[in-house]
Specification:
The structure holds two protein chains of two kinds. Chain A has 15 helices and two strands. By secondary structure, chain A is an all-alpha fold. A two-stranded antiparallel ribbon of chain A has the order 1-2. In chain A, helix 2 packs across helix 3 and helix 6 packs antiparallel against helix 10. Chain A starts with a helix and ends in a 7-residue tail after the last helix. By secondary structure, chain B is α+β, with helices and mostly antiparallel strands. Chain B has two domains: 227 residues, Rossmann fold; 85 residues, OB fold (Dihydrolipoamide Acetyltransferase, E2P). Helices cover 28% and strands 31% of the residues of chain B. Chain B has a six-stranded mixed β-sheet, sandwiched between helices. Chain B has a five-stranded antiparallel β-sheet with strand order 13-17-14-15-16, with no helix packed on it. The longest helix of chain B has 18 residues. Classes of the chains: A mainly alpha, B alpha+beta. At the A-B interface, helix 11 and helix 12 of A face strand 6 and helix 2 of B.
């Protein structure tokens, strides 16, 4: 404004931009950190106080214990709640959940890799759009609806049993269901069923980071490897896999931690044996044992921390 | 003698695009062979055909007498230095260089020694523990070279390996590559769009245009006797004289080329006007206007340089006029 009037309407070399917003953007331009601060404060407050704060509150709870007679929380520091985790019944829950999460992660990685590889290396234009649609589409519908749909698919009267019957392969399904531990009366009440649904639900979270990592691998590295005499298998093992590993690890963080914490899938599909999520739910709800529930929910956090430090040590993030 | 590389009517079509169209080519063992041409002329596709990244749509390729039809890149004793080096970012320099030996199952001690020797050969000893990201472009280029050479290839393919380097480094690498090739006796096939590079390094040059070879020969041949207008234009420094001007000058009414250094300033030649003079050190290059056409004249150092705008007289030997085909 002032610059304009001062120069008498002629174009000036440094035309000022008046008004509140003009001054504001000038101020931000001169002090870029001010803008950063302004943008980061709300999310930091949210993350720092509400999220981390409640996590710490949870952690504190796990160091209290419950009075067996009154059922009231005894606010004194103790490790006895953690000791309870080592009871055979509780420890079984932890082992069961970790083994399931590990198997789901491995299976997801195995299924996701070829899909991600195709999408990153070959798919173009509308095929790529179709890939994204295909991977994301399941995420658009309700989680509960999908799980109940799977219950119907896997049930004894469900479509899978029917298909096996039609193909005269009922013996195969029966043989699988007769296997110890993973079998059961029908797929919908077996560990195998729980596993299948876990893999289905978390698969997109494995495909997308793997695909992103593979997309960043330059095509000429594959050619260079072949040029130097590596067979496709060697190229996969020594070039493609190490470079895709950060993506696979990122995906496995999702599949592993989501499986560790989920309490709905094992409740609807599977044997009635508890997983960590269900134990937390039962302890803080019906049993009213908040310290034990808190101790249970610390378990996945510790396992994830161990897993990530192990992955880092093995060089999973070297290519980043 | 068997050729190191032999193309028989090789074509590579990508849909409607004829990247390489009926190329015949013979490269002798131990030769430094340059493929020169503008981008999209098919030279890189020819290189990729030798490496095995592409298979010919039709025709046959032989490498040292063995037919390469359907042979994958990892079964060819041919190595490539890639344009952007393609070093493995997750491996250190020594492991990068030893990679080819590693996949062939050579023991660790032996391959590390060979890789160390190769790094010494390209003057990068002691860089083995670094990552590719920590090296400069010129150093990465040498690593790529060492990584290919450590496999003792029969043919080394170089895809514009000097393109990303600055001028001084490029000239230095040109000399080093040339002496390396002489010392090792490996057949080098070198793709470039830089005519100076091709002419200064190669024993023989093939000039590519539109998926085909327009002319093959020694650098001297290509420079002195360009077969077509395209070659004269692309190889560059020669004067291309249009048929009309040739007729005016008393020659045949055909396209012709005349080297700038073959033109002399005399008292009684054709008249021309000096438009510009560039001092190049060892010589001065004049741009002159000869009957409406622009010509270059190279004056050796020591000759008096006429003023811009002056009128001068030019002469040359009839033998220096080289007639060419019209193909542009």
């Amino acid at each position: 404004m002032t610059a304009l009037t001062m120069s008498g309407g002629k174009t000036s070399i440094l035309p000022g931009r008046g008004g509140f917003f003009g001054q504001l953007s000038d101020a931000f331009w001169r002090h870029p950190k001010l803008l950063l601060l302004l943008m980061l404060t709300p999310p930091l407050l949210w993350l720092g106080i509400i999220y981390i704060g409640s996590l710490i509150a949870l952690l504190l709870q796990s160091f209290f214990s419950i009075d067996d007679f009154s059922g009231l929380v005894n606010y004194e520091f103790t490790l006895s709640t953690y000791a309870q985790l080592l009871n055979p019944a509780n420890f079984d829950i932890i082992i069961r959940t970790v083994v399931m999460a590990a198997l789901v992660t491995v299976a997801s990685a195995l299924i996701a890799f070829p899909i991600a590889y195709y999408a990153a290396r070959y798919a173009q234009g509308k095929w790529k759009a179709l890939f994204y649609l295909g991977v994301m589409l399941p995420l658009w519908s309700s989680y509960l609806v999908k799980i109940y749909a799977w219950k119907l698919i896997l049930a004894k009267e469900g479509i899978l049993t029917w298909i096996f019957e039609r193909l005269h392969l009922s013996w195969l399904l029966d043989a699988v269901l007769n296997l110890p531990v993973i079998g059961g009366n029908s797929l919908s009440v077996s560990y195998l069923g729980t596993f299948i649904v876990f893999v289905y639900i978390w698969l997109p979270y494995m495909i997308l980071p793997t695909q992103a990592a593979l997309e960043r691998v330059p095509g000429n590295l594959i050619e260079a490897s072949a040029d130097l005499g590596a067979t496709p298998r060697q190229t996969f093992r020594t070039v493609l896999l190490p470079l895709a590993l950060p993506g696979i690890v990122a995906g496995s963080i999702f599949t592993f931690s989501l499986t560790l914490g989920d309490y709905i899938i094992p409740q609807i599909i599977g044997s009635s044996r508890l997983f960590i999520g269900q134990a937390v739910y039962a302890q803080q709800g019906t049993a009213g044992n908040v310290p034990l529930a808190a101790a249970f929910s610390v378990v996945p956090i510790v396992i994830m921390a161990l897993y990530l430090s192990l992955a880092k040590k093995m060089g999973a993030f070297d290519a980043l | 003698m068997t050729s190191a590389v032999r193309f028989q009517q090789v074509s590579r079509h990508f849909g409607q695009v004829r990247a390489v169209d009926g190329v015949d080519l013979e490269i002798a063992p131990g030769e430094f062979f340059a493929m020169l041409g503008p981008s999209g002329s098919g030279k890189t596709t020819c290189l990729r055909l030798i490496a095995g990244f592409e298979q010919p749509t039709s025709g046959h390729i032989q490498i040292f007498g063995e037919t390469a039809d359907g042979v994958p890149p990892y079964r060819r004793n041919v190595n490539t230095v890639f344009q952007d080096y393609a070093l493995f970012p997750h491996l250190n320099i020594l492991d990068n260089v030893a990679y080819g030996l590693m996949v062939k199952g050579i023991g660790k001690a032996e391959r590390m020694k060979a890789a160390g020797d190769a790094l010494e050969l390209v003057k990068l000893p002691g860089y083995g523990a670094r990552r590719p990201g920590q090296l400069s472009g010129g150093q990465r280029q040498r690593v790529a070279l060492a990584r290919a050479l450590v496999n003792k290839p029969k043919v080394l393919l170089l895809d514009e390996p000097l393109g990303a380097l600055d001028l001084k480094l490029r000239e230095q690498m040109q000399e080093e590559l040339k002496s390396l090739q002489r010392a090792l006796g490996i057949t080098f096939v070198f793709v470039t769009h830089d005519q100076g590079e091709a002419l200064s390094m190669a024993d023989r040059v093939a000039v590519f245009n539109d998926g085909n070879i327009v002319q093959q020969g020694t650098p001297q041949d290509i420079y002195r006797c360009p077969k077509t207008r395209f070659v004269a234009d692309f190889v560059g420094s020669s004067n291309v004289i249009a048929p009309d001007l040739m007729a005016l000058l008393g020659g045949e009414k055909r396209w012709a080329s005349l080297r700038p250094e073959a033109i002399r300033l005399t008292g009684d030649g054709v008249e021309a006007k000096v438009e510009n003079a560039s001092f190049l050190g060892a010589a001065t290059r004049l741009s002159v206007d000869l009957k409406g056409s622009r010509l270059h004249v190279m004056l050796p150092a020591g000759t008096p340089v006429p003023d811009v705008g002056a009128s001068i007289h030019l002469a040359w030997q009839p033998a220096d006029i080289h007639y060419m085909d019209d193909a542009a």
